[in-house]
Amino acid sequence: MGNKIVQIQYYQSPFGELVVGSFEDKLCMCDWTDEKRRITIDRRIQKMLHAGYEVSSSDVIAKTIAQLDEYFARKRTVFDIPLLFVGTDFQKTVWQELLNIPYGKTLSYGALSQKLNNPKAIRAVASANGANPISILVPCHRVIGSDRKLIGYAGGLAAKRGLLELESNIQMVLF
Q1: Catalytic machinery residues
Q2: Over the stretch 37-51, which tens digit does the pLDDT of each residue have?
Q3: 46-64 as b/e, with b when 16 or more CB fall inside 10 Å?
Q4: What distance in Å separates the CA atoms of residue 102 and residue 139, rounded to the nearest whole number?
Q5: pLDDT tens-place string over residues 56-102
Q6: How big is the chain by its Cα radius of gyration, in Å?
Q7: pTM (2 decimals)?
Q8: Strands (E), the chain
Q9: Within 13 A of 70's CA, how many CA atoms are on the CB side?
Q10: How far apart are the C-alpha atoms of 52 and 3, rounded to whole Å?
């Protein structure tokens, strides 16, 4: 792994535990701990950054946690944390586009594919969305099915619904 370090801390959100990670003054991870893909994401981050994990804090982690607290208290709608995307070029393009979905709004996977000028790539876009290691700050929870149904979310559908309700201030019903 070399001697590079990804600093990590655990954060208890109202919808489940997150692991927050920083690498060289940038946030590279804010991801749900109770997650099937946790191993895949950890392996990708450690391999691509040639770094191991260490439970410790950093200025970026402290700032992220403070901003998450404000977000959950409905006092913050935009984050201003320096981000480090760790993934393929295609994944990075999708994650960058997610940053353009405004607080309180949703977009379908199909519409997201259109915005990326790749309308036939819905499955690939959905897969990249699912591989996003920076939940909440890179708002993959704002992507929903074209039928407006909540589908697929790393933190589980209850967390996705909770985040969307938090942002919209209305109760959502899952069928």
Answers
A1: 140
A2: 788 899 999 999 999
A3: beebebebeeeebebbebb
A4: 9
A5: 999 999 999 999 999 999 999 999 999 999 999 999 999 999 999 99
A6: 16
A7: 0.89
A8: 4-13, 16-23, 26-32, 51-55, 107-108, 143-144
A9: 13
A10: 7
